[in-house]
Amino acid sequence: MKTPVHIAVSGAAGQISYSLLFRLIGGELLGDQPFTLGLLEVPQSIEALEGVAMELTDCASPLLHGVACHSDPEAAFADADVVFLVGARPRGPGMERQDLLEVNAGIFSAQGKALNAAAKRNVKVLVVGNPANTNALIARCNAPDLPPENFTAMTRLDHNRAVGLLAERCGRPAGAIRQAIVWGNHSTTQYPDLSHATVDGRPALDCVGRDWYEQEFIAAVQQRGAEVIRVRGKSSVGSAANAAIGHMRDWLSGTPAGEWTSMAVSSDGSYGIEPGLVYSYPVEIH
Known about the structure:
Blueprint: E1 5-10, H1 15-24, E2 35-40, H2 46-58, E3 64-70, H3 73-76, E4 82-85, H4 97-118, E5 124-127, H5 132-141, E6 151-153, H6 156-170, E7 177-178, E8 181-183, E9 191-193, E10 198-199, E11 202-203, H7 204-208, H8 210-222, H9 224-232, H10 238-253, E12 261-266, E13 278-283
Parallel strand pairs: 1-2, 1-4, 2-3, 4-5, 5-6
Antiparallel strand pairs: 7-10, 8-9, 10-11, 12-13
């Protein structure tokens, strides 16, 4: 019997986590590796979270060796090997960006301190909750005893959007696309880059033309989240959970040989980016 690993998820009663958790117990992240779940929510959402935990139990997954609900982040993160920080305060009516940053600074500073106190020293922390890059930086700065490389922010959804839109334009499956990149922040300032990308081994820009790339593609990727909200009436949920699984799976198991993905990591000064910022780069993991 393999020793179970401990996975913690914040914002665990929310919609992204709801999609994420049932994929976890299906083995999409760790294969046949058993695990326990520490689920974190604010006190007013604990009853809803307990309902989610009941559903997880009712799936009778042989991989799930225990699930616990918490409102205390230190308890949820105790001995955690893998952490998904999904929960964040969304912008409300009349709320300025600065207000949003201040509220989330309080949330992620507390969670960083809890990780510092309770998680395993080699814990892998993925920040999904927006503004993800800033939230990852805040959590990292409040966990001084953990290596900075333990913290990443998710731009995998943007990467997947770039791949999907390029594949759709070319009439090819997404598996035909290689070496797309998303630089920067998970926001409309990001830069989706096809200068190294290929479609069935051919340079992507030869397949789609520079005009489409510069005039349509870049803005389409940058605005895709807003477009989903406009059409669906709700923000991305399934695709966000899918991206979180893909990001963490590559982080744990490595990227395929000769390929990369896009991840927001702590900058070491490469490509002229200020050291210490959480910035999306093309990343190979071995």
